[in-house]
Design a protein that fits this description.
Helix content: 25-40%
Number of helices: 14
Strand order of the largest sheet: 2-8-7-6-5-3-4
CATH superfamily of the largest domain: Type I PLP-dependent aspartate aminotransferase-like (Major domain)
Order of helices and strands: HEHHEHEHEHEHEHEHEHHHEHEEEH
Radius of gyration: 21 Å
CATH class of the largest domain: Alpha Beta
Number of domains: 2
Shape: globular
Strand content: 5-15%
CATH topology of the largest domain: Aspartate Aminotransferase, domain 2
Number of strands: 12
CATH architecture of the largest domain: 3-Layer(aba) Sandwich
Bound molecules: pyridoxal-5'-phosphate
């Protein structure tokens, strides 16, 4: 009998991890000049064509952008998907791609549309629609699920299941009221990569229950081994129904401030999503889409950036070794560290570590518990973990690592 995963909904702090972190360290003077490894904001040099392309596209600021994005941007996204993945057929830029103002708002608002589409079709009045989230998870998933009036069901992940939700342990009664599943690969913060087989099983499960699979692929280009992370669109085959891939230029091209991303997949879903977006979503200014088109057409800066992440993780391998439960992740740019040795005095290990690193080293990091919720059994499995973003250049990252290992010792 699989263990049910529908945990009782305990009262949780739903605020942003960064607000909670600011509160944790408020009034505490940093012991050294402040250095942030908290936010997953790539600080690598942005591609040098950004300025000239933007300059050329300036007249576009004089127009309201269309909700779906420019035809050129959608075609560029479709072309990139086709080149990056082994797709059964090219993505249809007109029907199967929409521009997003960064993947975050898309991941949030897609929940509202999924609930509208699925709930009336499959659920009885008494049943509360559910959305399944991995634990830990990106905060926009839960915010979207809850804004859509769904129960955000936190599905445990374990180190021995590659930090991915155990699909076989999902309660059939829960699946029957599920309208969407969120999966992130590479995951934030653990950097786990879902195999094609895993994604295929997740999509099959979603389809069987009339639900959508929201595949958050915004770290898809930051992989640390030779293997590129598989994507949901290649796993889906020629039929993209129920499969939605979210991606953006934020991590791939080190352009988090561009606020440009896209969603691709199920055309029936995207039709409804576009109708919603015409009245409710932020558009992407046309000049910024022009920059994104240039960025999607260039892989050289992506390769250089990936090499820099690899060099930083080489340094982390050397400087951290096997301490603090450290393992080189498959992808992403976070260190995910076990700091249970610091728990105490009313603080979780993650909080105590973040506070100590700030007070002694001026280093800002995020307590792992702030990125997760309590799951089955009532405990937050990440409360004794710490997230450290390796987003700077090499010398600054060395400084981050030096302060980190000194402060955690
Ligand atoms: C897992 C994950 N998904 C989505 C996002 C959103 O990124 P953006 O809105 O910049 O595309 C982030 C940003 O940190 C993230 O870590």
């Amino acid at each position: 009998m699989p263990a049910p995963v529908a945990a009782p909904a305990p009262v949780e702090d739903r605020r942003s991890p960064f607000i909670r972190l600011a509160e944790l360290i408020a009034g505490v003077e940093p012991g050294r000049p402040a250095l942030s490894a908290a936010v997953g904001e790539p600080q690598h040099a942005m591609p040098d064509f950004v300025g000239p392309v933007l300059q050329e596209a300036l007249p576009g600021f004089g127009r309201y952008p269309r909700a779906e994005g420019t035809p050129t941007f959608r075609a560029a996204a479709a072309r990139w998907l086709d080149q990056r993945y082994s797709l059964a057929r090219p993505v249809d830029a007109d029907r199967e791609v929409l521009a997003l103002n960064g993947s975050r708002e898309g991941l949030f608002s897609a929940a509202i549309v999924a609930r509208r589409l699925v709930a009336p079709r499959t659920l009885g009045k008494a049943e509360r629609p559910a959305m399944l989230l991995p634990n830990p998870f990106y905060a926009a998933y839960a915010a979207g699920a809850e804004a859509a009036g769904c129960e955000a069901v936190i599905v445990p992940t374990r180190k021995d299941s590659n930090w991915l939700p155990d699909l076989d342990a999902l309660d059939p009664a829960l699946l029957a009221r599920t309208v969407a599943l969120y999966i992130a690969s590479p995951a934030n913060p653990q950097g786990a990569i879902a195999s094609a087989d895993y994604l295929g099983r997740a999509l099959e499960l979603a389809r069987r229950h009339g639900a959508y699979l929201f595949s958050d692929e915004c770290y898809s280009e930051i992989y640390l081994g030779a293997q590129k992370p598989p994507g949901i669109l290649e796993v889906a085959g020629a039929d993209l129904s129920h499969a939605l891939a979210f991606n953006s230029l934020s991590k791939r091209s080190s352009l988090p401030g561009l606020r440009c991303g896209f969603v691709a997949g199920d055309p029936a879903f995207l039709k409804e999503f576009l109708a919603f977006r015409w009245v409710a979503a932020p558009q992407v200014p046309e000049p910024l889409q022009a920059v994104a088109v240039a960025a999607l057409g260039d892989e050289a800066h992506v390769t250089a950036s990936r090499d820099l992440y690899r060099a930083k993780f080489d340094m982390a391998d050397e400087m951290i070794g096997a301490r603090f439960g450290y393992e080189r992740p498959g992808g992403g740019f976070f260190l995910w560290l076990d700091v249970s040795h610091l728990a105490g005095g009313g603080l979780t290990g993650g909080e105590a570590a973040a506070l100590k690193l700030w007070r002694e080293q001026g280093l800002r990091t995020v307590p792992g518990g702030y990125l997760a919720r309590r799951d089955i059994g009532g405990t937050n499995p990440c409360e004794n973990w710490l997230r450290v973003a390796l987003v700077h250049d090499l010398p600054t990252s060395k400084e981050v690592l030096t302060r980190l290992v000194t402060g955690l010792a």
